[in-house]
Amino acid sequence: MALRHKADSLLFLIFCFLLCPEIMSGQDLAYTDEKVRDSVIKMGMEDVAVVDEPDGLYINYSDNIYRGPFRGAFEVFTLLLNDLQIDKSIILILKVDRIPYVSLKLDEEQVRAYQSGRLSLVQLMSASHISYDIDKYNKLFKGVKAENNSAGKIDIVLYPQVSLNNSWLDKLYGAIINIAPAVEVGLWKGASFTGQAIFPLWNNMTGEMDYIRAGMLVLRQEYRFPENIFMAFNIGNFNANRMGANLSFKYIPAGDQWEAGVNAGITGSSTFNSGKWEVSQWKRVNGAVFLRYNEPLYNLQFDLTGQRYIYGDYGIRLDCVRHFGEVAIGFYGMYTGGEPNGGFNLAIPLSGKKHMKRNAVRISAPEYFDWEYEAQSGNEYFKKRLGRYYEMRPDENRSQRYYNPAYMKNMLIKLASEYNNQN
Predict the structure, then answer these.
(1) Does 79 have pLDDT greater than 60?
(2) Rounded to a whole number, what is the distance in angstroms from the first to the last CA of the chain?
């Protein structure tokens, strides 16, 4: 009987080894750094690195898939929360051009409460912690190789351009409609290049508006320093017929509601006359200082800017922007060169909520369409070229890079509510 019992035990072990290998290996059942990393990469995230510590699971990544930084973070959170073995704090560090930018954290106590059914997903997202303060996390990733590198991947983005101007007496409006595809490529850490061409579709203007011409041709290098100090250097061909270089700094103090910054640039003209590209020496100096306050209850953004504009006039401008989900609508007033001015601007989602995964080359629409209208106080404002400034990337708008923590938390709560309704 003893011999038969041993034989039965041996057959049972062989059966388990052949047909149920997961029973023989607890490692296959448990999550690992590599499994988490591969799962996040499978979603389409890039520059992914994972560190598993006793106090939490740390993941940093670049999101070039989802529209808005909060949507990708929500998808990563729900992916990890559905793995009941991940019952510790989950910390996401979102990177922009491979520079760590903002952190999103779910505490261990809330994670376990959600997984046991004692906390809803909306309540969990309401308890999340989002902050620009990520210095304490950076040392965890030293020596950890990031996978699915974003460097060298190319996006071809088809930007529409629409302009209306009422500064002429012989026509009600000067109107311009262009399509301006841009090649955008990430280089080394913090660096990117944008090359754009402008194809005119229709206009009732004269001059360069009828010609295919260069748009933005910009090399950009960004840095992040401790204590939430950001720096960016741009050089190349900007919009508003300017070519030159610009250096900017931004500081975000503790609390994340205030921002302050300065920038300075030197430019020359860059125009197409009779189909020829003509540039001048870089002699015109511009600069600005700004103070921003982000009001968390209604997602209001207030910007106060003092500026020396392109053509030497000094002025002050006040913006008030309301973020209605992913739609941003703002009004502004300004006073420069002895003349008042004002208007409104908007940014609305244009592409889908999710892009295709990036391989070597990806073609897409821009995430947002932005437009600004200025009233101008008479023809003198236009003739003196008052209040003129330039932008340095084709996707500059009020929604594209709005990482304010209070706003992002509100959007996570909204996505959690939609998720519950769908499930």
Answers:
(1) yes
(2) 55
